[in-house]
Amino acid sequence: METRNKRILVVDDVEENTYIVSTILKSAGYTPFVANSGKQAIQIAETQHPDLVLLDINMPEMNGYEVCKYFKEHEPIADIPIVFLTVHADAESIAKAFDTGAVDYLTKPFKKAELLARVKVHLALRQAQELLEDQNESLKRLNDEKNEFLGIAAHDLKNPLNSIRGIAQMVRKRKEIELADDEVDDMVHQIETSSNFMFEIITNLLDVNKIENGKLVIQPSSVDLVLSLGAVTDRYQAPAAKKNITLHVELPDDDTQIYADPTLTIQVLDNIVSNAVKYSPQGKNVWVTVSCDAVQHRVRVAVKDEGPGFSEEDKKKLFGKFARLSAKPTGGEHSTGLGLSIVKRLAEAMDASIWCESELGKGATFIIEFPDASMMKTMEA
User: Rounded CA gap, 113 and 33, in Å?
Assistant: First the structure.
């Protein structure tokens, strides 16, 4: 176990004792703090939060038992392990020490090797306990996120499923209710729209699962950004036109190669362009541009819209899971609240970066920077 930076508070009203113990601890690579009274020990513990306390029993005003009891009753310092280091070797004193919350008991005079062995053991135990607590907290967070997502997915799947079921019943009775062909066509379109949204929910669920379980496969290579971005923007020309949105695409004439995973690149770009169209009001503009930074060897894609923009509060949670922001789709489109969270994880997995520049009421610009493929080839050579 690494001893460097492990801080140990030595509490004893006899300065000779604190000097001896501190010297031993320093020689082993620990950082000792010294307190000559119980009140001073509490003050140091509350400000420095040491990793371990070596505590004497016999002290004026506030003895070791009272100090230990105070530690265990006050949350900020209750988790600090306390080892009594005292001349009292009788069973009653030892039992009382453990009753007040001590983790160990060492009597004076002690051997240096034994003191350091006890210190090492209890520091290791505390480190293991902290690791276990962190893991439990992480598992709890993941379980809460899973339950939240399942709740959202169940809620969001219910509406399109009901819609599909209702439309199917109407189509089955189309002769009875005398549906026209164009009405049937409209219902088929509604079924397609609902099923696409359901597919998006399920795809997001699978993506999150792969990312969280470390099963996301990244296969970076040289990718033609102009070709990929052109394919994505072509796909959203029609949805943009339906909302009278003009999609301006400014791509470089020359070959622009990035170093990324081809499939994940399309997924990232698709999400950002899709959101720009989805959240833009009728009759507005969306600009998609590409620029290169020859110094940093990065290629930047910027997608700018004239939508509602984001508040400072929105921007704090923009790339978080299940983010429910103040901005809403403007054409009845759906949102799972997972898209940007997944996009950020995918971008980072490819050594790309993504961020948003926005002011409330003044639209938003999402920027993605990819590594330049030429630089990667130079490094590999």
Answer: 20
Q: Strand 7-11 vs strand 31-35: parallel, antiparallel, or unpaired? A: parallel
Fold entry, domain 141-212: Helix Hairpins (1.10.287)
Please report where in the chains the tokens 């819609």 appear, as a residue.
Answer: 163
Dihedral, CA of residue 282, residue 287, residue 288 and residue 289, to nearest 10: 180
By the 8 A CB rule, do 4 and 93 touch? no
* Domain residue ranges of the chain, discontinuous segments joined by +: 7-110, 141-212, 221-380
pTM of the model: 0.54
Query: What fold does the segment set 221-380 form as a domain?
Result: Heat Shock Protein 90 (3.30.565)
- What integer pLDDT is reported at residue 381 of this predicted model? 44
Question: Do the beta carbons of residue 48 and residue 33 sit within 8 Å?
Answer: yes
pLDDT grade, residue 119 (50/70/90)?
Answer: very high
Q: What is the percent of the chain with per-residue pLDDT over 90, rounded to a whole number?
A: 47
259 near 223, Cβ under 8 Å?
yes
pLDDT at 292 over 80: yes
Would strands 52-55 and 82-86 be described as parallel, antiparallel, or unpaired?
parallel
DSSP state string for 271-306:
HHHHHHHHHSPTT-EEEEEEEEETTTTEEEEEEEE-
Radius of gyration of the chain from Cα atoms? Answer: 32
Tell me which CATH code domain 7-110 carries.
3.40.50.2300
Instruction: Give the confidence band of 94 by pLDDT, cuts at 50, 70, 90.
Output: very high
Asked whether 233 and 199 are in contact (CB, 8 A), the reply is no
Output the six-digit token pair for 177: 């209710």
- The least confident of 42-51, 89-98, 166-175, 275-284 is 166-175
Question: How far apart, in whole angstroms, are the C-alpha atoms of residue 203 and residue 207?
Answer: 6
Distance CA(283)–CA(264), nearest Å, equals: 31
CA 42 to chain centre: 35
Q: What is the per-residue pLDDT across 322-357, written as a single tens digit (0 to 9) for each?
A: 666 666 666 565 555 567 887 888 888 899 999 999
